[in-house]
């Protein structure tokens, strides 16, 4: 009997034992089957603006801390001209902020067909978003932080819930409002027919005054969406590189009042003051004549 | 597609419930008794998306991200809020196609065992979601139209005819409310006169989720289909936080601009 035959016998016996245990097991050991099909290509419906990157200082809809606001106002997009900063802005939650669709695939446990992981292909952040479904724990708080972070998931009824930690610093908004390496993301995937609604809750004790809540919608696509996007490439962004990092003094940012001038948005709202996200703030604004 | 799947899910769960009740001799549970999620209470809008399009009136002709037909763009370009006001149409931006995007508060209650009621303080609108078909002739078209409701429940994973959960427990938690609304008066998707027509169908899904600091979130996904003014469905989702009491409930009438 050759070594290959012995190996195959051992593998077959182990597989049979696993299947037997599965059949005999109670509900506690029952595999976590997917409650809906998530795998496939999903087009972004694109009817909402989650990126908010039309103007350099548009922090509307974000409950920022003072530190986040100051750092955002000090940011110049010309920093992206620097090779070492060309990819700095895209943490994993950009999948729900950016304009792109989703390509989702799964890795499946061969014996019982349950998902080991789901992966959402990356776009410009160049780091796939892997959701581990096999019950593995999150690593130590001191473990390396990466562009994609570390994510575990589970099903709650017909909702896939994912929890992400260990993200590198990045942007809450790609116009320079920062996210810290202490940020956490809870994502819920709701599917209704061929519409997928993704709820992202971002917690960042340094840069958010309260959890940020975002939702983005996708529609099932028959056309395949690429699982990878273009690379980040450093190009000219408006300021020639010098000996210092391009920036503004926060109180002298020339774009601070652009939202007010162009759209009549009050400065507090443009700068992401938390109270501006609630309806009663409208009563503080002076009603304006029709534009 | 959404309607068909939702209906299939609802029928499946209803059939299971009826089977159980026939065996026990009890009447089938009402939609109120069998609700998989609790939507009742006060909810406040959390305006974290499209702020400048929702909290202030956008400029005339700003229909960014709305897939209008050429006719729809033409109508949007002729928006006249003063004319709306003088014609008594201040509520055009508070109809069912847009009301969940209006910054304000919701109050959700059971009107009876088969009707869920949703009131808004902004615009002082009332929506009724009927799980049982309304008796009698259809009402005249209105800002909130007529809405039918169904519960969606967690699906059971299958392989062919095999129920992979066997006799084990059904999926815990989850579920959603699906509401389909028709018989609408023509209204606006945005304050600045971006139109939807009286032929519009609005399909909404209501999901709940825990908020990380306690309490609950309500997520409403709205799909607006209008064969006249929209080239394809317009899909937005709006988030609300649950409030403990009605102390901030502030009814205000419709306005044609802000």
Radius of gyration of chain A: 23 Å
Q: What amount of the residues of chain A lies in strands?
A: 15-25%
Mean pLDDT, all residues of chain B: 88
Residue share in helix of chain A: 10-25%
Q: How many domain units of chain A? A: 2
SS summary, helix count of chain A: 5
Proportion of beta-strand residues of chain B: 25-35%
Helix content of chain B: 10-25%
Distance between the termini of chain B: 37 Å
Overall geometric form of chain A: globular
Which strand order does the major sheet of chain A show? 1-2-3-4-5-6-9-10-11
Quaternary form: heterodimer
The Cα radius of gyration of chain B reads 20 Å
Question: In brief, what are we looking at here?
Answer:
The complex is a heterodimer of chains A (291) and B (258). Chain A is α+β, with helices and mostly antiparallel strands and 291 residues long.
Can you tell me about this structure?
- The complex is a heterodimer of chains A (291) and B (258).
- With 291 residues, chain A is an alpha+beta fold.
- Chain A has 2 domains: 1-30; 40-221, no CATH class.
- Helix content of chain A is 15%, strand content 24%.
- Chain A has 5 helices and 11 strands, in the order H-E-H-E-E-E-E-E-E-E-E-E-E-H-H-H.
- Chain A has helices spanning 3-24, 66-74, 258-263, 267-270, 281-284, and strands at 40-44, 102-108, 115-120, 129-132, 150-156, 159-165, 170-173, 177-179, 184-192, 195-203, 212-221.
- In chain A, strands 1-2-3-4-5-6-9-10-11 form a 9-stranded mixed β-barrel.
- The longest helix of chain A has 22 residues, at 3-24.
- Chain A is globular.
- The relative contact order of chain A is 0.20.
- The model of chain A is unreliable at 18-30 (pLDDT under 50).
- Chain B has 258 residues and is an alpha+beta fold.
- Chain B has one domain.
- Chain B has 4 helices and 13 strands.
- Chain B has helices at residues 2-24, 51-54, 70-77, 81-86, and strands spanning 41-45, 105-112, 115-120, 126-130, 146-152, 158-159, 162-163, 176-182, 187-188, 195-196, 201-210, 216-225, 234-243.
- The longest helix of chain B has 23 residues, at 2-24.
- The radius of gyration of chain B is 20 Å and the shape is globular.
- Chains A and B meet through strand 9, strand 10 and strand 11 of A and helix 1, helix 2, strand 11, strand 12 and strand 13 of B.
